[in-house]
From TrEMBL:
Database matches in InterPro entries: ATP-grasp, ATP_grasp_subdomain_1, RimK-rel_E_lig, RimK-rel_E_lig_ATP-grasp
Protein's recorded name: Alpha-L-glutamate ligase-like protein
SUPFAM superfamilies named in the record: Glutathione synthetase ATP-binding domain-like (SSF56059)
Keyword Secreted attributed: no
Lineage, top ranks: Bacteria, Pseudomonadati, Pseudomonadota, Gammaproteobacteria, Pseudomonadales
Pfam families documented for this protein: ATPgrasp_ST
UniProt keyword terms in alphabetical order: ATP-binding, Manganese, Nucleotide-binding
The ATP-grasp domain, residue ranges: 46-297
Length: 328
């Protein structure tokens, strides 16, 4: 028992945040319960983002009742590829990604052929709350399928890689690239076997990777190195993430974004209870960074000023970025 206590004290000294501290000092402190629906429901998040001029995957349609399932064919229209997902789903569950049509049927990104009736049945399951938080009745949304930027081709297996940035009161504090693997079924979900790769806040260069809680240097499926990759539009991603504080009003969030090869950076969803594996990927504790931001907020409050999105991004990049930008 003494050994465990010493281990935990050593982790605390490194600023490693545990789930109890995350919940008590950040989620409960900075996130009003009344605002949770904004981030827990992907449709509400999307509508808020569109109203704020923030780019998101295009919404083709929403199905809210069993009766509306008959509108599915009309919603899909002439689209050969699209995504069906639960509005209140979590962890990537309940998402079907259609990549193409084949002989009157649909082909998923994994190559499985499914019928229109199977998609209708899946939508019906979504409506019953099979995939929703708490098992409550849900809505199904049909939206644009993101096509990952070519930069990810060598370090990702199927699916869509995404970028998670944790934001405290509008200040990005830590970032991670999540890469699908064969084991994760092409989903960018760490608990299902995706890779988490730390990202330097100042430059957008990838750091080391973590897979199933082990430190790795190469993608297990492509065998290519996951570190040292320069993510395009990095300042744009940082600005998008920082601006999500004004978008939803929640003070402690995870912002999930994707890089589409044609549309550029897009907001995918927001999370009011972001996981803590991001610390392993960055070999750095969240607490040291959150404390620095809280000290900054106290300083600004004493001076009676607030910072713009651009100023907040500049502050964290100077404070937490540890790799100098490449010149030339």
């Amino acid at each position: 028992m003494l050994g465990l206590w010493k281990t935990w004290k050593a982790l605390e000294a490194r600023g490693i945040m545990g789930i109890n501290r995350r919940n008590a000092d950040y989620v409960l402190k900075y996130n009003k319960r009344s605002l949770y629906p904004i981030v827990d429901d992907k449709i509400i998040t999307k509508e808020r983002a569109i109203a704020a001029g923030i780019h998101v995957p295009e919404l083709y349609g929403v199905i809210s009742t069993e009766k509306e399932i008959e509108k599915l064919d009309e919603i899909i229209g002439g689209h050969t590829d699209f995504v069906v997902k639960p509005a209140q789903g979590a962890g990537g569950d309940g998402i079907i990604v259609i990549a193409d049509r084949f002989e009157g049927r649909y082909r998923t990104v994994s190559g499985k052929i499914i019928s229109h009736e199977e998609i209708e049945h899946h939508v019906s399951s979504i409506l019953t709350g099979l995939y929703s938080l708490g098992g409550h009745r849900d809505r199904a949304l049909i939206e644009y399928r993101v096509i990952p930027d070519q930069i990810f081709k060598s370090i990702s297996y199927e699916g869509v890689p995404d970028i998670r940035i944790i934001v405290l009161m509008g200040y990005p504090v830590m970032a991670m690239l999540r890469l699908p693997t064969r084991q994760s079924g092409g989903k960018a979900n760490l608990h299902q076997g995706a890779i988490g790769v730390g990202v330097d806040l100042a430059t957008g260069l990838t750091l080391r990777g973590t897979w199933l809680n082990n430190i790795i240097a190469k993608h297990p499926d492509t065998t290519n190195a996951v570190d040292g990759v320069q993510l395009p539009y990095w300042d744009g991603f940082m600005t998008l993430a920082a601006g999500c504080y004004e978008l939803c009003g929640l003070g402690y969030i995870g912002v999930d974004m994707v890089l589409d090869q044609e549309k550029g950076p897009l907001i995918l969803e927001l999370n009011a209870r972001p996981g803590l594996n991001i610390q392993i990927a960055n070999d750095c504790g969240l607490t040291l960074r959150t404390h620095a931001v809280e000290a900054r907020l106290e300083e600004l409050k004493a001076r009676g000023v607030t910072e713009t999105v651009e100023e907040r991004v500049a502050f964290v990049q100077e404070m937490f970025g540890h790799i100098p930008p490449v010149e030339g």
